[in-house]
């Protein structure tokens, strides 16, 4: 399954940005066990490359393990070496260009029509509307008017209610961090994480 199909099927990218590498790894595993197979580990989290490497060894080649906050060409190369098979960027730049050059599935951060055009010209897999909270579902709906066929994934401030509104506005998937993960990646409650994962799965299955 390619990334575009996976996004349309699963409709949710879980985003982990943890202060504790061991807790982040446990969070990845809990999300995978809860049936959320698209997981992004932000490089701004503590020892994120080790988390990706451990998760890849545990979950095997089939899992979607993303590296997020990829800014530079070096970030992209190190993420790929650690086992990431999805690259997520907050915007355009060298990290995105290197990821595309390597043939890695990419979720490119965009906000404006000009950025959408530039990212699409690079051949990215999907477009991460970030920070989505700036314009909300109404902005996504307006942005899709000139780009009706492109796959948008809103990220930033997306809770369960917002996810429903973004789907209604035409999003193929949403990216969700703290409203889903909570404090689990900092050593917090995994049971709460599992409960929220079930709630988000129900929203995304509608």
TrEMBL record:
Protease in keyword set: no
Pathway terms, separated by semicolons: Carbohydrate acid metabolism
PROSITE patterns in the cross-refs: ALDOLASE_KDPG_KHG_2
Alphabetical keyword list: Carbohydrate metabolism, Lyase
Top-level taxon in the UniProt lineage: Bacteria
InterPro entries with a match to the protein in the record: Aldlse_KDPG_KHG, Aldolase_TIM, KDPG/KHG_AS_2
Record keyword NADP present: no
Any one Pfam family match given in the protein's UniProt record, by short name: Aldolase
Similarity annotation: Belongs to the KHG/KDPG aldolase family.
Subunit description: Homotrimer.
Protein name, entry field: Bifunctional 4-hydroxy-2-oxoglutarate aldolase/2-dehydro-3-deoxy-phosphogluconate aldolase
